[in-house]
């Protein structure tokens, strides 16, 4: 048990360090897309830039508002990061995950759904109407896309006949689930962007309307924890995408695909403009949900009709 805890902590620290370099990768990719200079001042080619940013953020003073609920404002960003990192033990970094439970997908369902509550708590606890408005928009967006998100996972469960990520990986020995399910794969990637509040679905942090959304009153270490939770969830979702559609993380091809998926989340931000909010909801309820339901229910109805 002690060894499992040490391995889990070391993997969590590795992911947090990878988040630091993922941010500098994003800034450099966006700078090349926008034909300008990226972060290249601190260290060799800007390698020390994320560490200098972390030191700057965690050394800042935390100023609380007059009517802020300080206890909830203090614990909400921490729990948001903690919930994200709790997904790590069920991911198959080795032949089997650290906690090889038979219902690991249900465990992932619970943890990913709990993130909504902490975002709402972050906005509510400040007693600021701007934070609260941003959190309400974020929760509405995440709930809308979680339905499509979970329906696609349900389809993968039907294909593998299991609730375990390990069994899903083993059921792709003959053929990857990516082949034949490319439409679902694209819908899944789009839902991942909406789940993590990434552009072009970053209405929770729409700078032009809300000035950073639900975290507008958070500074220093609070903002850093929310920032870490967002980027760590992007990396973890890239791993889960690879496990669901491309078998596992144990071979070089899958690792390369995971890197390409993580890169595509950055590339989309520098390419597509932000949607309108009504277009966001129409895309979820009028496009993605009917297509996903049709893809899932049509084979079942056809199978029952034939047999």
Automatic annotation (TrEMBL):
Q: What is this protein called?
A: NADH-ubiquinone oxidoreductase chain 1
User: Where, if anywhere, are coiled coils annotated?
Assistant: none
Q: What is its main location?
A: mitochondrion
Which enzyme class?
Answer: translocase
Spans through the membrane: 7-25, 74-94, 106-124, 144-163, 175-196, 216-237, 249-268, 288-306
Report how it sits in the membrane.
Multi-pass membrane protein
Q: Which InterPro entries match?
A: NADH_UbQ_OxRdtase_su1/FPO, NADH_UbQ_OxRdtase_su1_CS
Kindly list the places in or outside the cell where this protein is found, as annotated in its UniProt entry: Mitochondrion inner membrane; Mitochondrion membrane
Q: Does the keyword NAD apply?
A: yes
Sorted alphabetically, the Gene Ontology cellular component annotations on this record are:
mitochondrial inner membrane
Pfam family name, one = NADHdh
Family from the record: Belongs to the complex I subunit 1 family.
Q: Which GO terms describe its biological process?
A: aerobic respiration
What's in the keyword line of the UniProt record? Membrane, Mitochondrion, NAD, Transmembrane, Transmembrane helix, Transport, Ubiquinone
One function term, GO molecular function aspect? NADH dehydrogenase (ubiquinone) activity
What does it catalyze? a ubiquinone + NADH + 5 H(+)(in) = a ubiquinol + NAD(+) + 4 H(+)(out)
Function description: Core subunit of the mitochondrial membrane respiratory chain NADH dehydrogenase (Complex I) that is believed to belong to the minimal assembly required for catalysis. Complex I functions in the transfer of electrons from NADH to the respiratory chain. The immediate electron acceptor for the enzyme is believed to be ubiquinone.
- Under which EC number(s) is this enzyme classified? 7.1.1.2
Q: Which organism is it from?
A: Oxytate striatipes
Its domain of life reads: Eukaryota
């Amino acid at each position: 048990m002690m060894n499992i805890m040490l391995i889990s902590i070391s993997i969590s620290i590795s992911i947090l360090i990878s988040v630091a370099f993922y941010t500098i990768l994003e800034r450099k990719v966006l700078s090349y897309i926008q034909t300008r200079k990226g972060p290249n001042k601190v260290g060799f080619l800007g390698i020390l830039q994320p560490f200098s940013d972390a030191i700057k953020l965690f050394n800042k003073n935390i100023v609380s508002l007059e009517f802020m609920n300080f206890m909830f404002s203090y614990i909400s960003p921490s729990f948001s990061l903690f919930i994200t990192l709790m997904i790590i033990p069920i991911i198959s970094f080795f032949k089997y995950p650290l906690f090889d439970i038979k219902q690991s997908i249900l465990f992932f369902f619970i943890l990913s759904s709990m993130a909504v509550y902490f975002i709402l708590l972050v906005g509510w606890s400040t007693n600021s109407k701007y934070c609260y408005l941003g959190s309400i928009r974020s929760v509405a967006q995440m709930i809308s896309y979680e339905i499509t998100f979970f329906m696609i996972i349900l389809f993968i469960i039907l294909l593998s006949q299991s609730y375990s990520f390990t069994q899903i990986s083993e059921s792709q020995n003959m053929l990857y689930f990516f082949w034949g399910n490319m439409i679902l794969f694209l819908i899944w990637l789009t839902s991942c962007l909406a789940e993590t509040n990434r552009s072009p679905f970053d209405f929770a942090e729409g700078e032009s309307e809300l000035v950073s959304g639900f975290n507008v009153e958070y500074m220093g270490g609070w903002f850093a924890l929310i920032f870490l939770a967002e980027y760590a969830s992007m990396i973890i979702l890239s791993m889960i995408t690879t496990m669901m559609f491309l078998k596992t993380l144990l071979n070089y091809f899958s690792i390369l695909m995971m890197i390409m998926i993580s890169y595509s989340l950055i590339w989309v931000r520098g390419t597509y403009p932000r949607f309108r909010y009504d277009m966001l909801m129409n895309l979820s309820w009028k496009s993605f949900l009917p297509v996903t339901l049709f893809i899932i229910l049509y084979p079942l109805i056809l199978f029952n009709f034939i047999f």
